[in-house]
């Protein structure tokens, strides 16, 4: 398990130096060809330390170099000269350095601790790796596109800031049998993600986890168990068309096609529609369009351009009981409502099938109709209150609704002639 | 005497003179390539020092100029040599660079694995400098001044069985040195080709 927060004691992880190719020495050629870097050596070379640790380092000048002495040597760390009080001469050829309470490394290739001669020339260097072991990754979430692949995302522990290069590896295996597999395509949907493109089984659970490793340790996430069928998403519905509904100035008709990849399986698919006015950033969402591929938006503003998008949730595939995962929204499609001189109504919802009067838009239209009737049809007693009374009466006398459709009592002469159609 | 009057020129003579415009075009093209790679080499060096951290990017940073197998800086007297000789030295340096750039790319793959753009630039540099080297060789061949004798196998390509690892700081310094040599030699090549290009002093 990774260590907790570090204490002040000097700690250097017992790890070998980073494995650099052996050809490095060959490339460099003769190591002491009159250059400065190899006239001294820093110890330790490339240590790994916990944040807050201390470090004791030495710079030893090679004895066979003429005039070699530790007199006048000084140190820099990441290009900044260190205060002389941190250094002391151990002997004629060795200068020591004491650093305390180290901060996390400034770059992942390591902090550059350099020993300089009096004239500023570089004698030797060592790279410090100061950081934290990784914490447990968490919040793994996965989804399968059309049951063909699996993409997973996770959150690194401690918000990922270890100051050291930390490698994340997504592992998976079939729950009841099989060997561990390692995901290979990383960073597909963000820095902490991986994509498994093929060879996935259905109807059997997978175990999935993430391992984080750096120079100071490793950590493993909790195991997520899932069946591919429970995390299916699909493509946005294609061929979204938005059109006017005759001359109705507050309505638009939206039609789309079931996503082709899962077309034969989407018996219980849900759809959602969202729409907004051209100049607005506020979307209105129509939920629970259920398993239709068309919908009528009502209560819209006349003479207005609307952008519309649709998305699909393929829940219930092969009997899965899970909620399913919404697809991306389709590309926006635009259409405009017919113009009108009358002020239009505000928001709206998807008109249900069958024309059953809903509250908002139908009532408004009825109000307008009643107003027109009062003007043109000598119905002086017409009022909206009368309409509400009629609706209440209709609900009470449910049995006689079909027989008395549109007929009012004699005491309510002149009221609306029947239920709105 | 004009062509219309029956010039002394004949098609045969014309075709034997035609390689010159072709050579000029080749020189011009190679010069343009060298100019482009000089710009890329500057960008590569800038990107490289950013990922190594200070003092690598600081003005005046001057690590020891370690000898690099098969390649050294242009000699002080380089500009005083005849152009073909300069181009021969350029071609030799350009041929030595790709394996060194590959080594640096592998080292940086371990030191800076997330520095994808740097790694890509190093990979591209190796490929581009190979192309420039081949183009310079073609110019030399067209001038009748090919390189003399076979080139030695690059030492960087042979992984020796050494037992010590040099450390991270020397690896950073090596990459700095190689990127610096790359910039020096492509800009040197650009200048030398400029002497031959139409409009140049030659």
Automatic annotation (TrEMBL), chain A:
<dbReference type="InterPro" id="IPR003961">
    <property type="entry name" value="FN3_dom"/>
</dbReference>
<keyword id="KW-0964">Secreted</keyword>
<feature type="compositionally biased region" description="Low complexity">
    <location>
        <begin position="411"/>
        <end position="421"/>
    </location>
</feature>
<comment type="similarity">
    <text>Belongs to the type I cytokine receptor family. Type 3 subfamily.</text>
</comment>
<feature type="domain" description="Fibronectin type-III">
    <location>
        <begin position="136"/>
        <end position="231"/>
    </location>
</feature>
<dbReference type="GO" id="GO:0097058">
    <property type="term" value="C:CRLF-CLCF1 complex"/>
</dbReference>
<keyword id="KW-0732">Signal</keyword>
<keyword id="KW-0325">Glycoprotein</keyword>
<keyword id="KW-0677">Repeat</keyword>
<keyword id="KW-1015">Disulfide bond</keyword>
<protein>
    <recommendedName>
        <fullName>Cytokine receptor-like factor 1</fullName>
    </recommendedName>
</protein>
<dbReference type="InterPro" id="IPR013783">
    <property type="entry name" value="Ig-like_fold"/>
</dbReference>
<feature type="domain" description="Fibronectin type-III">
    <location>
        <begin position="236"/>
        <end position="340"/>
    </location>
</feature>
<keyword id="KW-0393">Immunoglobulin domain</keyword>
<dbReference type="InterPro" id="IPR036179">
    <property type="entry name" value="Ig-like_dom_sf"/>
</dbReference>
<dbReference type="GO" id="GO:0001657">
    <property type="term" value="P:ureteric bud development"/>
</dbReference>
<dbReference type="GO" id="GO:0043235">
    <property type="term" value="C:receptor complex"/>
</dbReference>
<keyword id="KW-0597">Phosphoprotein</keyword>
<feature type="region of interest" description="Disordered">
    <location>
        <begin position="398"/>
        <end position="421"/>
    </location>
</feature>
<dbReference type="GO" id="GO:0005127">
    <property type="term" value="F:ciliary neurotrophic factor receptor binding"/>
</dbReference>
<dbReference type="InterPro" id="IPR050379">
    <property type="entry name" value="Type-I_Cytokine_Rcpt"/>
</dbReference>
<dbReference type="GO" id="GO:0009897">
    <property type="term" value="C:external side of plasma membrane"/>
</dbReference>
UniProtKB/TrEMBL annotation, chain B:
<dbReference type="InterPro" id="IPR009079">
    <property type="entry name" value="4_helix_cytokine-like_core"/>
</dbReference>
<comment type="function">
    <text>Induces cardiac myocyte hypertrophy in vitro. Binds to and activates the ILST/gp130 receptor.</text>
</comment>
<dbReference type="GO" id="GO:0005125">
    <property type="term" value="F:cytokine activity"/>
</dbReference>
<dbReference type="GO" id="GO:0005615">
    <property type="term" value="C:extracellular space"/>
</dbReference>
<dbReference type="GO" id="GO:0007166">
    <property type="term" value="P:cell surface receptor signaling pathway"/>
</dbReference>
<dbReference type="InterPro" id="IPR010681">
    <property type="entry name" value="PRF/CT"/>
</dbReference>
<dbReference type="GO" id="GO:0048666">
    <property type="term" value="P:neuron development"/>
</dbReference>
<keyword id="KW-0964">Secreted</keyword>
<keyword id="KW-0202">Cytokine</keyword>
<dbReference type="GO" id="GO:0009891">
    <property type="term" value="P:positive regulation of biosynthetic process"/>
</dbReference>
<comment type="similarity">
    <text>Belongs to the IL-6 superfamily.</text>
</comment>
<protein>
    <recommendedName>
        <fullName>Cardiotrophin-1</fullName>
    </recommendedName>
</protein>
<feature type="region of interest" description="Disordered">
    <location>
        <begin position="1"/>
        <end position="25"/>
    </location>
</feature>
């Amino acid at each position: 398990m990774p260590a907790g927060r570090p204490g002040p004691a000097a700690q250097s992880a017992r790890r070998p130096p980073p494995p650099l190719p052996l050809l490095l020495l060959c490339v460099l050629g003769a190591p002491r060809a009159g250059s400065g870097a190899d006239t001294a050596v820093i110890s330790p070379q490339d240590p790994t330390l916990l944040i807050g640790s201390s470090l004791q380092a030495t710079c030893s000048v090679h004895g066979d170099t003429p005039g070699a002495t530790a007199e006048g040597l000084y140190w820099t760390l990441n290009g900044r000269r260190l205060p002389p009080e941190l250094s002391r001469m151990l002997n004629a050829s060795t200068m020591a350095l004491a650093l305390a309470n180290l901060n996390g490394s400034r770059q992942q290739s390591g902090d550059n601790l350099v020993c300089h001669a009096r004239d500023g020339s570089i004698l030797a260097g060592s790279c410090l790796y100061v950081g934290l072991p990784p914490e447990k990754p968490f919040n793994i979430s996965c989804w399968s596109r059309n049951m063909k692949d699996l993409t997973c995302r996770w959150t690194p522990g401690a918000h990922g800031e270890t100051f050291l290069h930390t490698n994340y590896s997504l592992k998976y295996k079939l729950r009841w049998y099989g060997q561990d597999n390692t995901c290979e395509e990383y960073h597909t949907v963000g820095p902490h993600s991986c994509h498994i493109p093929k060879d996935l089984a259905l109807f059997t659970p997978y175990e999935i986890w993430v391992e984080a490793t750096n120079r100071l340790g490793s950590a493993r996430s909790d195991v997520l168990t899932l069946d591919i069928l429970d995390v299916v998403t699909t493509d946005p519905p294609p061929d979204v068309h938005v059109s006017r509904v005759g001359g109705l100035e507050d309505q638009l008709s939206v039609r789309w096609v079931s996503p082709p990849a899962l077309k034969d399986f989407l018996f219980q698919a849900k759809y959602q529609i969202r729409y907004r006015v051209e100049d607005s950033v506020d979307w209105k969402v129509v939920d629970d369009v259920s398993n239709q591929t068309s919908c009528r938006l009502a209560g819209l503003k006349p003479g207005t351009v609307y952008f519309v998008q649709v998305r699909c949730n393929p829940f219930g595939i092969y009997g899965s009981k899970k909620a399913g995962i919404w697809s991306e929204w389709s590309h926006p499609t635009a259409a405009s409502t017919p113009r009108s001189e009358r002020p239009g109504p505000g928001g709206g919802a998807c008109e249900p099938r069958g024309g059953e009067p809903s509250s908002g838009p139908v009532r408004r239209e009825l109000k307008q109709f009643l107003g027109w009737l009062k003007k043109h049809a000598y119905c002086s007693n017409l009022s909206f209150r009368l309409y509400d009374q009629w609706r209440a009466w209709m609900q009470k006398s449910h049995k006689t609704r079909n027989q008395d459709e549109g007929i009012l009592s004699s005491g309510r002469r002149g009221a609306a002639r029947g239920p709105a159609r | 005497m004009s062509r219309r009057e029956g010039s002394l020129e004949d098609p045969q003579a014309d075709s034997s003179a035609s390689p010159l415009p072709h050579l000029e075009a080749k020189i011009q093209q190679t010069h343009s390539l060298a100019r482009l790679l000089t710009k890329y080499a500057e960008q590569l060096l800038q990107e490289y020092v950013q990922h190594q951290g200070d003092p690598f990017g600081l003005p005046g940073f001057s690590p020891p100029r370690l000898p690099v197998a098969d390649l050294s800086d242009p000699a002080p007297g380089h500009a005083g040599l005849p152009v073909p000789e300069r181009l021969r030295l350029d071609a030799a340096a350009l041929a030595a660079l790709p394996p060194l750039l590959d080594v640096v790319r592998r080292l940086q793959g371990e030191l800076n694995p997330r520095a994808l753009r740097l790694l890509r630039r190093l990979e591209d540099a190796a490929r581009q400098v190979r192309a420039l080297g081949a183009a310079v060789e073609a110019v030399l061949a067209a001038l009748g001044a090919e390189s003399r004798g076979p080139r030695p196998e690059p030492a960087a390509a042979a992984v020796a069985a050494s037992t010590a690892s040099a450390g991270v700081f020397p690896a950073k310094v090596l990459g700095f040195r190689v990127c610096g040599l790359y910039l020096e030699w492509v800009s040197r090549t650009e200048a030398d080709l400029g002497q031959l290009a139409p409009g140049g002093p030659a």
